[in-house]
Amino acid sequence: MKVLVTGAAGFIGMNVARRLLERGDEVVGIDNLNDYYAVSLKNDRLAELNRIGGDAFAFHKVDFADYDALNGALGSLDFDGTVHLGAQAGVRYSIDNPHAYVQSNLVGHLNMLEFARNRRSAHLVYASSSSVYGGNSNLPFSVDDRVDRPLSLYAATKKSDELMSEAYANLYRLPLTGLRFFTVYGPWGRPDMALWIFTKAILEGRPIAVFNHGNMQRDFTYIDDIVTGVVACLDNPPPDDGLVKAGGSILPHRLYNIGNHRSEQLGHMIDLIEQACGMKAIRDPQPMQDGDVPATYADIAAIQRDLGFEPTTSIADGIPRFVDWYRNYHRL
Ligand SMILES: NC(=O)c1ccc[n+]([C@@H]2O[C@H](COP(=O)([O-])OP(=O)(O)OC[C@H]3O[C@@H](n4cnc5c(N)ncnc54)[C@H](O)[C@@H]3O)[C@@H](O)[C@H]2O)c1
């Protein structure tokens, strides 16, 4: 199978590309290597993919928000499937940098839909986000809940991606699967996310900002579980049979929550980092941040039913694995 992975130098993209290479697929990765966080980390991820994949991995540095550049980079290549994980991520950054989200997440998403349509890609799996649930207080969040009250521009772009995809499934019968990820963590993770920020600060003896005075809950999902779910989706395109799909579409378009189905207190997560680091955190309670949501919790019944997805990694197992990787990577 030949798979196009966008955001291949990113956290989830790299891990998906690695799993595909390990099972013998050919992977073409694209990424613009933007400097939202350390470009060196993105290059190190690509080096790892080159080491694992050899000739089965090809990489092109390209901005998929530039349609001509995208077509220029990929020439006349055809793919058996696309996993579209490239995006401008992060809720807080969208407050000061709204245009980055429109470019990568709206223009970029449309370009990937057009690209898939024109190349007759068999199936496009794309990243949405649990942030589409906004301040929904019905826990756990279900793909059947209303999601038209975003709290951040990031969430609004992800919901828009789902709407554009629905239109393309209707107009072109393009098989599409949208995945609402819930706080993904693990080795090769993102420096802008709480687990990385807390681990770094604790190891350096600096205080950590604990938002909403610690009254936050997150459904933390370990990267290997996420990758298993993404690959299961890639291998199982939604049929064009007129039946109602997960998320409510009668077109070949499914929407799944992909989480751990456990909502953990932020304080418990910090306890586990402290244990893994062998050091105490200096906790600095702070108010809630704009655009943030107090709790996330995934109802994963749809993806369990359709694809047999079962997350297997608790945060008690996953957090020490991240801290070990973090120390090795930084030679600490
Ligand atoms: N990690 C999470 O907890 C989480 C949660 C919800 C949703 N998501 C979504 O999952 C996807 C992957 O997230 P991630 O954690 O790997 O983020 P990431 O930032 O590590 O990876 C995204 C990659 O996309 C690339 N990119 C951005 N804009 C681009 C463009 N215009 N052209 C080419 N490449 C571009 C970036 O350089 C980056 O390497 C994103 O769509 C994100 O919104 C992630």
Textual characterization of the structure:
Helices cover 42% and strands 16% of the residues. It is built from eleven helices and 13 strands. The longest helix is centred in the first third of the chain and has 22 residues, at 98-119. The strands form four sheets. Strands 3-2-1-4-5-6-11 form a seven-stranded parallel β-sheet, with helices on both faces. Strands 7-10 form a two-stranded parallel ribbon. A two-stranded parallel ribbon has the order 8-13. Helix 5 (98-119) packs parallel to helix 6. The chain has helices at 11-22, 39-53, 67-74, 93-96, 98-119, 153-172, 194-204, 223-235, 266-277, 301-307, 315-329, and strands at residues 2-6, 26-31, 57-61, 81-84, 124-129, 176-181, 184-185, 207-210, 217-218, 221-222, 253-258, 264-265, 282-285. The structure holds nicotinamide-adenine-dinucleotide (NAD). Residues 7, 9-13, 31-34, 42, 63-65, 85-89, 104, 108, 127, 129-130, 181, 183-184, 190 line the site of nicotinamide-adenine-dinucleotide.
